[in-house]
Design goal:
The chain contains 1 helix and 41 strands. By secondary structure, the chain is mainly β. The longest helix is centred in the N-terminal third of the chain and has 17 residues. Helix content is 3%, strand content 48%. The strands form 11 sheets. Strands 7-18-14-20-21 form a 5-stranded mixed sheet, with no helix packed on it. Strands 13, 15, 16, 17 and 19 form a 5-stranded antiparallel sheet that branches. Strands 22, 24, 25, 26 and 28 form a 5-stranded antiparallel sheet that branches.
């Protein structure tokens, strides 16, 4: 084969990797061009990281691992495996921690999986007690990889960490934004960093308050050892107390899973997961109907200010919150606004979009309180992407789950499947139509003959993008303990360039 022919083919393959299309033209008379769009194929490997559950000896934690049944039989036809194993966690050496002689490193046995999933379509669970439960690191391969989801749900009945703390275990990355954190005296917020790899990662933590950057030297160059976790009390990174703080986590080397555990001495605690990537339009789905307080926190990472229009998407359509129709967010300054009892007895979602036509990227999250007086409980809702092809919420119980579906643009249709139960039960499915500019809050289907817990999988069927969130409520002594997990696309498939070549015309 001529060297010129080889160069042409190599260039076409490189182009396909960038554009998602492959086109090869054979030289000489009769050369043909064949082009084919990239295919979406199931992933062959997935990684997930779960933070250490907390600091309370009263903590009771359930881990749930689940992979939806694949339409095409899995990534590569192999059975595969999905295991989450424990890893050590320690406090970071910040200025406050250096004088703490009683720092503890959580022990871990990396050779013994905490939870192991054997088959798609049926959840696997495990339990842990106390504040010394470790962080988890895991991978899924073969037919267990596409759509693999893990949920960590912790109940703490008393103390400053009281609450139902839920978090969907996250994939490792290099960049995270957390609006709605705080360094106020009533708060104790920790950034949990978990490293899944065999080499150390180095992370930086930046804090931004209402007046801009909260200067700190100790948030730079935090080492996260290989296959280990580090937690950082953010109030030790600055001397400034601020109600609303945006936390930005980046890595210099390696990658980490990052999540914030936010604890309020009055309203309990929950996990705050990262906002969707900065964008000019954001959707925050799943505000409970009985929310007694809703606080929006937004941040602009770029150099331009943002003027946002606020819309509450309710059961019948979109309305502008009275007195809070818009919000001005200054560049690199955290803005917070109390929307009070925004929903007024009707579940809804918040839509943020440019008020002036400028496409200024923003990140945002909601701090939501339910209950009154000493019976209050807090939860967090970050901005999130649409469910896309498929999204899953694990650890649903026979009672207490509410699924919120919102279509910020055109009307959309989704199929919701309740999996088999972890200890028995038959899957069931139901299709929902979501009107344009509305939020549909439903009690999701429950597997027939359910024993144990189950997973909910949401699949887009037709129409415009649908955003979703699952609220799990477990009341305790009159306290409406709850947690909200958003449901972005699970990334179970990836776009793979496809090339078709006719080499018959190429001469030797």
């Amino acid at each position: 084969m001529k060297s010129t022919s080889l160069s042409l083919i190599a260039g076409a393959v490189a182009l396909a990797a960038v554009t998602g299309f492959a086109a090869v033209t054979a030289p000489g008379d009769g050369g043909t061009t064949q082009a084919k769009a990239a295919e979406r194929l199931p992933v062959e490997r997935s990684s997930l990281l779960c933070p250490a559950p907390g600091l309370s000896d009263l903590a009771e934690t359930t881990y749930t691992s689940f992979t939806p049944l694949a339409k095409s039989g899995g990534a590569d036809g192999t059975a595969g495996a999905a295991e989450l194993g424990s890893t050590a966690v320690k406090d970071a050496d910040t200025k406050k921690d250096k004088d703490d002689k009683d720092k503890k490193t959580k022990k871990a046995d990396p050779d013994k999986p905490v939870v192991s999933l054997k088959e798609p379509g049926k959840p696997a669970t495990a339990e842990a007690s106390g504040g010394d439960a470790p962080a988890l690191v895991g991978t899924a391969t073969g037919r267990l990889a596409p759509g693999w989801t893990a949920q960590q749900t912790t109940t703490v009945e008393a103390g400053d960490s009281r609450g139902l703390l839920g978090v969907s275990c996250t994939a490792p990355d290099t960049d995270f934004w957390f609006p709605a954190a705080s360094t106020a005296k009533s708060r104790e917020d920790y950034v949990h960093l978990t490293n899944p790899d065999d080499t150390a990662a180095v992370a930086d933590i930046e804090l931004y308050g209402p007046d801009g950057t909260l200067k700190s030297d100790v948030g730079e160059g935090i080492t996260v050892p290989a296959r280990s976790g580090v937690r950082v009390l953010i109030s030790t990174l600055t001397s400034k107390a601020a109600e609303d703080v945006t936390v930005h986590v980046t890595t210099r080397t390696g990658r980490v899973g990052a999540v914030v555990r936010a604890a309020d001495s009055e309203n309990g605690s929950d996990w705050l997961t990262a906002s969707a990537d900065p964008a000019s339009t954001l959707v925050l789905p799943g505000i409970p109907a009985d929310a007694t307080s809703v606080r929006l926190v937004a941040f602009v990472p770029g150099e331009d200010d943002a003027d946002l229009e606020l819309k509450l998407l309710g059961k019948t359509g979109a309305i502008s919150p009275a007195g809070h129709e818009d919000l001005h967010v200054k560049s690199r300054m955290t803005a917070g606004v109390d929307l009070k009892n925004l929903t007024r007895g009707e579940a809804g979602s918040l839509l943020l979009k440019p008020a002036d036509g400028k496409t200024t990227p923003v990140v945002a999250a909601l701090r939501v309180v339910r209950g009154k007086g000493d019976k209050q409980e807090v939860g967090y809702i970050p901005a999130t992407g649409p469910v896309g092809a498929q999204a899953t919420a694990a650890d649903n119980r026979a009672k207490g789950s509410v699924l919120s579906l919102t279509a910020p643009g055109a009307a959309g249709s989704v199929k919701v499947t309740a999996s088999a139960g972890s200890k028995g039960g038959t899957p069931v499915s139901k299709t929902y139509q979501v009107g344009a500019g509305t939020t549909l809050a439903v009690t999701p289907p429950v597997p027939a003959g359910l024993k144990g817990t189950y997973a909910l999988t949401v699949e887009t069927q037709s129409g415009g993008p649908v955003h979703a969130a699952r609220t799990l409520t477990v009341p305790l002594d009159g306290i409406p303990m709850f947690t909200v997990q958003t449901l972005p696309d699970d990334g179970g498939t990836v776009e793979v360039p496809a090339a078709e070549q006719d080499l018959s015309v190429l001469d030797d």
